[in-house]
Design brief:
The chain has a single domain (3-435), classed as Cytochrome p450 (Orthogonal Bundle). The protein has 19 helices and 13 strands. It has helices at 14-22, 24-35, 54-62, 73-80, 90-100, 106-109, 113-124, 135-152, 157-173, 176-180, 190-215, 223-229, 240-271, 273-284, 292-295, 299-311, 343-347, 363-366, 387-404; strands at residues 9-11, 38-43, 46-51, 68-69, 132-134, 317-322, 326-328, 331-333, 338-342, 405-409, 415-417, 422-424, 429-435. The chain has a 6-stranded mixed β-sheet with strand order 1-2-3-9-6-4. It has a 3-stranded antiparallel β-sheet with strand order 5-13-10. Strands 7-8 form a two-stranded antiparallel ribbon.
Length: 457
């Protein structure tokens, strides 16, 4: 059975195709409401099986990892390079994750709590009462500095400042047209030329960083140190080209998604003053200088962050390519089939999330959600390796902002695709009302108590 042999199949018109890429939330919800759990889509000459419910996500994520290959390998490699974790599969993918996983362990990044606080304060200093700011500009700056410290240990300060500049330039050149339409990756296309130039500058900077690191000893316990220390099956170190591919992937993906999630959380809190009051009461209950490791486990803070990521799903599709026959809702998908789990559809399923278009953090206090019901970082064996540090940064930075600033949303926002991920169209305009001092210790006034405190994702 091929994907097109499924009982329900749809061939998108040009208008529907445009909406699918431009307005994925509306299209994913329409597909779930009309076709239920699963549907076959014909897009741009290819067939995709779209999985639209949490049960479908569970079936996909629980299948044997050996039965999948990386999705869109050749096309993604054209953006990220062939050494990126995004395009590795099989034994190479497992080895790379095993190599990098210790650096992303909770015990490793908890040491960065105070650094995240300091970087957040630094980038908030230019805010002035009465002005309107684009929150995304601030959150991107915070997230860039955090990921640079995390990957490289905060060494080589001049190189870190340079890295922040080249990373921002690269991020600004990524466009959905060159992500989803590889035929446009040609020198005659201006958007591709800008991206290729920015990527070359990023790789040149990484080369200088590798030289500097090796000059002072090379192997440390940060991510770069682990890549330099890695040895292949033949005993040889990783080629510099592979290290550059991996680092540029982590830098680009690792800072954008966290920054976007933080901007959306600020947007929703800027529209819901009652939620801000609850959050401040909770944050100030242990005292204004509480340890970051304690703050990130607070239940209402966790609920606010989770609800922001649910309501504004960062990566709408979680794709796989079937490398062994896959059983899905009673159908057998053959080798070569493309399967796309719609995280956006799952996150807006009213059966799971009543009033799915409303910002209701309390839903995460009333119950726990399984990894197939709440999947902001994907799922299964290819779940985002940096989910833990991203979540930790999001909660730490949000707590710092809410504790020290009064603000409100200055405009109605909407979501658009920036690249593979979604982002705010207008950058989340916030009107800054006042700088504040943390209040005295008070008891948190939550309307519901969690069955258990949400753990870091």
């Amino acid at each position: 059975m091929s994907p097109m042999d499924l009982p329900q199949s749809i061939r998108f018109s040009p208008w529907q195709l445009w909406r699918y890429f431009r307005e994925p939330m509306a299209m994913h919800n329409w597909l779930r409401e009309r076709y239920g759990e699963i549907v076959s889509l014909h897009l741009e000459g290819q067939d995709y099986v779209a999985v639209l419910t949490a049960e479908g996500a569970r079936q996909v994520f629980s299948a044997d990892p050996a039965g999948y290959e990386a999705f869109w390998k050749t096309d993604i490699a054209g953006l990220s390079g062939p050494g990126s974790l995004w395009v590795l599969d099989g034994a190479k993918h497992r080895r790379e994750r095993q190599l990098l996983s210790p650096a992303f362990h909770t015990r490793h990044f908890h040491a960065y709590g105070e650094i995240i606080r300091q970087l957040t304060r630094c980038h908030l200093d230019p805010w002035q009462p009465g002005q309107t700011v684009r929150a995304i500009d601030t959150t991107l700056a915070i997230s860039r500095d955090v990921i640079l410290h995390f990957l490289f240990g905060g060494q080589e300060d001049e190189l870190m400042r340079e890295g922040s500049v080249v990373l921002e330039a690269l991020w600004r050149t990524v466009h959905p047209l060159i992500v989803f339409f590889p035929k446009l990756r040609r020198r005659w296309f201006p958007i591709w030329r800008r991206y290729a130039r920015a990527r070359a500058e990023m790789y040149a900077w990484l080369d200088r960083l590798l030289v500097a690191r090796r000059a002072r000893g090379g192997e440390t316990d940060d991510v770069l140190g682990r890549l330099l220390a890695a040895r292949g099956e033949d005993g040889n170190p990783m080629p510099d080209a592979a290290i550059r591919d991996e680092l540029s992937t982590i830098l680009l993906a690792g800072h954008e998604t966290t920054a976007t999630a933080l901007a959306w959380a600020l947007y929703e809190l800027g529209r819901h003053p009652a939620a801000v009051q609850k959050l401040r009461a909770e944050l100030e209950s242990p005292g204004p200088v509480a340890d970051p490791g304690s703050i990130v486990t607070l239940p209402y803070l966790s609920a606010v962050c989770n609800e922001a990521m649910r309501l504004h799903t960062l990566v709408p599709e979680v794709p796989r390519v079937v490398a062994a026959p896959l059983e899905l809702f009673g159908h057998t998908l053959p080798v070569g089939s493309s399967v796309v789990v719609s995280a956006m559809s799952v996150h807006h399923d009213p059966e799971l999330y009543p009033q799915p278009d409303q910002f209701i953090p309390e839903r995460f206090l009333r119950r726990s959600y399984t990894p197939s019901e709440f999947l902001p970082f994907g799922g299964g064996h290819r779940r985002c390796l940096g989910a833990g540090i991203s979540d930790y940064e999001l909660r730490t930075a949000l707590a710092e902002i809410i504790t020290h600033w009064e603000f409100e949303a200055a405009a109605v926002e909407r979501e658009i695709r920036h690249d593979i991920a979604m982002g705010p169209k207008y950058g989340v305009p916030l009107r800054i009302k006042a700088r504040r001092q943390p209040g005295p210790k008070v008891e948190p006034a939550l309307s519901a108590q969690p069955e258990r405190a949400p753990a870091l994702v």
